[in-house]
Amino acid sequence: MSWQVVAKRRLLDPYRSRYLWVVLAVTVLLFGGGVHMATRPGLVSMLRSLGALFVSLLAIASSYRTIAEPHQTGSLRVVLSYPNSRRDVVVGTAVGRSLYVVGIISVGYLVAGAISLVTLGADSLLSVAIVWFAAVLFGVSLTVLAVGVSAASRTVNRAAIASFTFVLLFFGGWNLLLQGIRYVLNGFSTPQPPQPGWVDVFVALNPMHAFVHLVQTLHPTQTLVYESSVHTTTWFGILVLVCWALVPATIGGWLFERRDL
Amino acid sequence: MTAIELDSLRKQFDDIVALRDVDLTVQSGEVFGLLGPNGAGKSTMIDVVLDYVRPTAGTATVFGLDAQQQTKAVHRRVGVLPDAYHLDGHLSARTHVEFAIESMDADDDSDALLDRVGLGSVTDRLVRGFSKGMEQRLALALALVGEPELLILDEPSTGLDPNGARRMRTIIHEECDRGATVFFSSHILGQVQAVCDRVGILVDGTVVAVDSIGGLQETVGTAETLRITLDSQPGETIESVRQLPDVRNVSVSDGVVSVSCPARQKVAVIDTLRQNATVLDIETREVSLDELFATYTGADG
Questions:
Q1: Is the C or the N end of chain A the one with fewer CB within 10 Å?
Q2: Cα angle A162-A163-A166, degrees, rounded to a multiple of 5
Q3: Are B278 and B249 part of one and the same domain?
Q4: What ipTM does the predicted assembly reach?
Q5: Which of B13, B99, B149 has the highest number of chain A CBs within 10 A, making it the mutation to test binding with A?
Q6: pTM exceeding 0.80
Q7: Residues of A numbered 46-85 whose beta carbons fall under 8 angstroms of chain B's beta carbons: which are they?
Q8: Which family does the record claim for this protein (chain B) (predicted)?
Q9: Of B130, B129, B131, B153, whose CA–CA distance to B141 is shortest?
Q10: Cβ–Cβ of A83/B85 closer than 8 Å?
């Protein structure tokens, strides 16, 4: 199974570069500083906001180059000269980079846990662990998404533009898109309340929302703000994250396998 | 046994036809040189065999395995020095070789391999600081990992100094003695002559000739260029020279007659010219690759 060889290389690659120390320093500062300033009631929302911003940028920034760059430079011609299939390269890269991203996220939340233990007490650890768990799922989802985008792209530039377009889409673009769709469906005029039922489902399909929502449904002290239905369950949130990983990766892998290097 | 077999292989990029229905057979155990000018389609041919590029039509097989369908099985038996490769600057030479060993599921000693290509003293240096020649040596070491049955080397002597080129030839001979088949491309005639058993000549996406090295040398020998300096204009004797069999590319400028002809016709050419003028000087020049291609394609270059 040679995707494991590729995964190992992709996991270890960052450890050979000085860039890793910068990422670690930023992680420790962000999470350490953030939690240090947080109050007990504000801890979860602090960790969640940190997670949403930090995890999405980390996952995308450390993965969008992973296949497009070796494709463009020609190092893929060396990797593929061994008995590694193109699928091995995509799967191995997705696994290796996901482990790396999970490692960095875990460092961040470990630092958060250590500081909250001192400043806020032992009962804050559960909150940290829950946000960490959701952040890991979110991080893996966006990492695999970015690897898929990278596999679909012929150049690093295109991969960068496409990946960061996704980030913008998840941050604010999703609402704009929603409003655009409603405007069009409403016969090109501003929609009036009440909003149709599918709007909540559409909102729930945003992986950023899925992450925030996961934290909420998993956290025992937090009361549900949504009325209960399929798209407000924990499993629906996880399913959304899985789909955002697998659909782009499958399409990207499919395009990559059919392309001339 | 057949190492590589190309059957009506055709590759068309948007508006360029890189390979035009190429048929080629490389026997197991031979050193086969693919000779051709830049842009002839050599790298495209190799890229199809490695499945870096998919053919428009036709098939490529390696040891009877389909290059496009059974890619992994093919690559288990092949060592590759590809064209337009890139080595990762932040990794050491040793790390590159170790990745290759792991990928090939081999048990080579990375230090011994690097020593063999002349990089024994820089095994732990980052590739970032390597010269083109050192990168090429490392790429050769990567191709040798796992004692592959077939070595595919695309322009292996690119960037090598004379020592490096000699080492490359020695390694090719050693690999061949071990029983490996070697298939390599080059646009330099001398290299091909030095190591090959057989040569294929690729021009503009078409294999115009496949010849033994003896046959190639005969052709090379018969296509020398003669430059004859005369004391006066040759006059009508130049037409007589043009009538001689196998004499081509006859031209005159400032009393210097330039002629491509086989060795056996040299004397006839000079005798003909002496009928009208005195010969002051005779120079012979070895055939250039362009002239060789012209000889094989039958075009007057």
A1: N
A2: 90
A3: yes
A4: 0.86
A5: B99
A6: yes
A7: 70, 73-75, 77-85
A8: Belongs to the ABC transporter superfamily.
A9: B153
A10: no
